[in-house]
Design brief:
The chain has 1 helix and 7 strands. With 90 residues, it is of the alpha+beta class. The chain is elongated.
Length: 90
Amino acid sequence: MQLKNLAITFAILTSTTVFAVPYGGLFACPNDWWYCGECHNNGCKIAGLDYPCGHETTCMGDNGGKGALCGTKNGDFFNMGKDIECPDKA
């Protein structure tokens, strides 16, 4: 019975895990970004999480829009929210 509960718990935890996969494969983000994602509304969606654009950039200009590439040069995944670069200047 304990093995069954452990197997169910493991299946649930592994099926809901989301991780950052850089654009185009491992370590293949453009612009020397560590992590990259896509513009979503007026922010950048990386690994399923929405981050606001920083560095006076935005996703709402000519080069932006839903699906445009954005990313960060900050290699610290847990502290990258303020370092997001979006495709257009604000």
